[in-house]
Amino acid sequence: MNPFLLIALYVAVTLAPLGLSLWSGNGPRSFGDELASGAGMTALVIILVEFVLSGRFRLISRRIGSDVTMRMHQLFARTALVLALLHPFLYQAPFAPARPWDTARAETLFYRIDFLTTGTIAWVLLIPFVLLAVARDGLPFRYEVWRALHGGGAAAIAAAAGYHALVGGRYSADPVLGAFWLVLIAAAFVSLAVVYVVKPLAQLRHRYRVVAVTPVAERTWEVDIVPEAQGAGMDFKAGQFAWLNIGHSPFSLRENPFSISSAPANRRRISFLIKEVGDFTRTLGAVRPGTIAYLDGPHGHLTIAARKEPGVVLIAGGVGLAPLMAIARQARASGDPRPFVLLYGNRSERQIACRGELDAMARDMASFTVVHVLSEPPPGWQGARGLVTREVIADACGGTIRPDWLHVLCGPAAMITGVERTLRAGGVPARAVLCERFTYD
Length: 441
Ligand SMILES: Cc1cc2nc3c(=O)[nH]c(=O)nc-3n(C[C@H](O)[C@H](O)[C@H](O)COP(=O)(O)OP(=O)(O)OC[C@H]3O[C@@H](n4cnc5c(N)ncnc54)[C@H](O)[C@@H]3O)c2cc1C
Prior knowledge:
- By secondary structure, the chain is of the alpha/beta class.
- It contains 11 helices and 12 strands.
- It has helices at about 5-25, 30-55, 60-65, 65-90, 115-135, 145-170, 175-205, 320-335, 355-365, 390-395, 415-425; strands spanning about 210-215, 220-225, 240-245, 255-260, 270-275, 290-300, 310-315, 340-345, 370-375, 385, 405-410, 435.
- The strands form 2 sheets. A 6-stranded antiparallel sheet has the order 4-3-6-1-2-5. A 6-stranded parallel sheet has the order 10-9-8-7-11-12, with helices on both faces.
- Strand 11, helix 11 (about 415-425) and strand 12 (about 435) form a beta-alpha-beta unit.
- The protein binds flavin-adenine dinucleotide.
């Protein structure tokens, strides 16, 4: 599906409760009351759609990319928080028993203990919920604990807010809007079930085993896995990523997203280039061959499979090399005749991963150029120095930035933002720049 169609669909779903309320024929109330209802309904619709956005549906992540999807997830959550916080304070009508003559419920607010309690629970939970998500990296507990709190909290908020809207919302009494809420609440809980029950069940039938864990640079490993059953493994495109779980039940929350670094041409052996940064990645050196692994994927849109540009510039920072390595390996395996230029930035020489293989590619493939860029080069360093600047890119591409070539970027967020700006200023159109961030903030 076209990404613009997905965005249009999102906007249409978000605005649907407002449209349905207008259409319901209820008489007008004070401006504050209408604003309060609108804010509450829009907050609820955003919250429920968040489940679908973060449900790892390939239809979404393959079209607009997982980092963009997650960025949208974060921005929408903040919007929902503001609207939900305002919702009760905008009302002007009093909470009081309904007046017998007020059949359109314009003069008082719905007055029932379950309605008030569920609304208050959702409202109170939402504040620490969003704060915990914003402060995630600074929290003193494991990522998996955070994930359990995030999933459980989201489910509790959706259930309480959904009930609140369904039993007491003035407009939700309309059968069409009521049905809309029921469908959306069901979609939210189905999305949760897909991630935590359906996918793990499917993974039980497609187990992998670790066959090698190889150090490839300072604090960086390449992990190779093969499917237990005969035949090929996952069907993916070079540049995509998967959620990898090594040594735990597929129902455990201990899985992390990693780009696949091997070429799809070699589908039986799937590799990941992984840098030690935290709880799981620091244990990689202790993982033994034979350990069971599970994959959820492929996900992501960082692929050049259908792209026809006459040349490809790959720009990697640190372990951002992983998906670009898969693209380079696939280019070699498929004999892609186009010129490929890899600009690979690191701080020090010890951090350069897969150096031998990259240099061999540059030697063996006439159309493959590798430029190592170090910000802290050792004495006598022959490669480029500093950051990946306009001059470095132009030098590697024959003296000028190539607006007609495809540019694929992966690395630290600051580097991607800087390089993307440089490319756009050099005349490269947005459609010729693909990027993926490993962190979202
Ligand atoms: C699409 C994508 C592709 C990635 N590809 C690679 C890759 O090819 N190689 C590589 O080394 N790293 C990659 N990463 C980053 C990698 O997922 C994290 O470094 C890893 O999950 C950290 O796990 P940990 O338990 O060691 O760290 P933790 O101690 O749990 O946390 C360290 C940091 O990693 C982040 N993190 C932890 N778990 C996750 C998770 N499940 N999802 C997102 N962020 C998490 C935390 O926010 C924290 O900032 C990728 C991330 C994404 C989103």
